[in-house]
Each structure stands twice: as C-alpha cells, then as structure tokens.
Specification:
Number of helices: 12
Helix content: 40-55%
Protein name: 3-methyl-2-oxobutanoate hydroxymethyltransferase
Order of helices and strands: HEHEHHEHEHEHHEHEEHHH
Family: Belongs to the PanB family.
Main location: cytoplasm
Shape: globular
Subcellular location: Cytoplasm
Function: Catalyzes the reversible reaction in which hydroxymethyl group from 5,10-methylenetetrahydrofolate is transferred onto alpha-ketoisovalerate to form ketopantoate.
Strand order of the largest sheet: 1-2-3-4-5-6-7-8
Low-confidence stretches: none
Bound molecules: 3-methyl-2-oxobutanoic acid, sodium ion
Mean pLDDT: 98
Length: about 260
Amino acid sequence: QRSTTVQTLSALKQEKKKFSCLTSYDATFAHIISEAGIESILVGDSLGNVLQGHDTTLPVTVEDLAYHTAAVARGNEHALIITDLPFMGYATPEQAMDNATQVMRAGAHVVKVEGGTWLCPTIAMLTERGIPVCAHLGLTPQSVNTLGGFKVQGRSPEQAQAIIADAKAIEAAGAGILVLECVPSELAKTITEQLTIPVIGIGAGSDTDGQVLVLHDMLGLNPRPAKFVKNFMAASGGSIQDAIALYGEEVKSGAFPGPEHGFK
Ligand code: KIV
Ligand code: NA
C-alpha cells in the first residue's frame, strides 16, 4: 500500500469515497491506526486535554507537538500525518514558518491551523514553500476564550455565511484540506459541496468528505463525551484494534456519523 497524500484525499473526494482520520500521539497507536487502513492521523493539540490533563489546548507547545509527531512518525506505516500548530504559534507568518518547520522535521506531512481569512497570507506562504496546510473552521478550540466556550458555531445565517466565506478564502489561498468542527450538518454539507479540497468533519454531520475523532473519545475513555462521539470500543465489543477497524469501516460505509451525532 502506498502512502496517503493530500492528493490521495482529493482523489477520494472526487470519487465520492469517504475517508477517515483519528488522532494519535504515540508510535503504538499510530501503528495500529495505520494498519487498520485509516487514511490520516492527526497529532492534535487535543493532547493537551487527553494526555496532559488541561481544560484547554492553550498550554500545548510546539515542542510538545514535535515530540509526539516524531513518535507517531516512527509507528506510522501509510497514513497522512497532520500536526496542529500550537496556540499563538502562527500569529505571524514568520512564527508559522518557524513552527511548521519544527513539526515537519519531526515527521508531519501537513500542518493544521485554526482560522479563516486572516490566515490567508500565512497559508499561501507555507504552501508556496512546500508545506501543505489544513485549515480548521467552526469551533476552533484555541479561540475558546473569544468564543465564550466550546459551542456549536454557524447557527445564525450571518455566522454561517462568514464560515462559508472563510472556507472559500482558505481554499483560494492554497489550503489543501479543511477541518470543520461543531457546525450544523446542513452548513457542513454546503461547504463540502462548494469546495474542491477535501473537508474533514467532527460534529459536522455525515456529508463531509472525511471524519475525524479524538482517539480516546472513540475508545470510550472520556467520562463526558460530546454528542458527536461514538464509543467504538463498546460497539465492536472486542479489542482496541477491532474498535479502530470498525470506525474506519463505518466512516467508509456512511454508517457513522448518524443523525444523532450531528447538530441542526
Ligand atoms: O486537536 C485535535 O484533536 C483536533 C481535532 C478535534 C480536529 O483539532
Ligand atoms: Na486541535
């Protein structure tokens, strides 16, 4: 099996085939996820929550992300490795280039940044210099303090139009992938249809091109899971390997997410 690239995900979108992504922060899980045929691994700054025990992703540093990316890269076989840039790690294009360099050297294939139109010059600079960019819109957890909490985004027509405009802008700037988090399913559908680049959803309904979940959530380890999480450990009734394989199958078939996992 050849390694997955941004182009692989674009081709899957064109063929209307769904693909899956899971977070991982270490070599053992990266190996299991990759062996299960999950197309992409996200080294998310959610590691601040699930590994470090913080309430938000704000304390996570580029050193943390590079350390976990290097571990994931050692265990990975075929998956596309996307690594978050940290809070305030891309406030200027220069900071973005320095921090992206660190995580790319650690083994990332793509860097992810939270934001829309304001990030367009940064996205263009990184892409032109050989670093593919995944943008992240909707609920952007690094902005929890300006958003006033972890809330569904894009519920009003004005907010929805702003997210659509941001999505078009980041695509035009050269972003290769978009993550949409916690937006109404209808809005995610509209954006997925209007963009050429692959859109990965989390709490964004079943009509995005791909799906992502936090590994610990889908293994049933989070005592207070969000509405969009499914416990695949319970659903598979078997091993961690079985739970991850079932997730991949259900995303591919469209069985996950169901309407109960989305927002109106
Ligand atoms: O850090 C993370 O795990 C993420 C996903 C929830 C999209 O950004
Ligand atoms: Na993140």
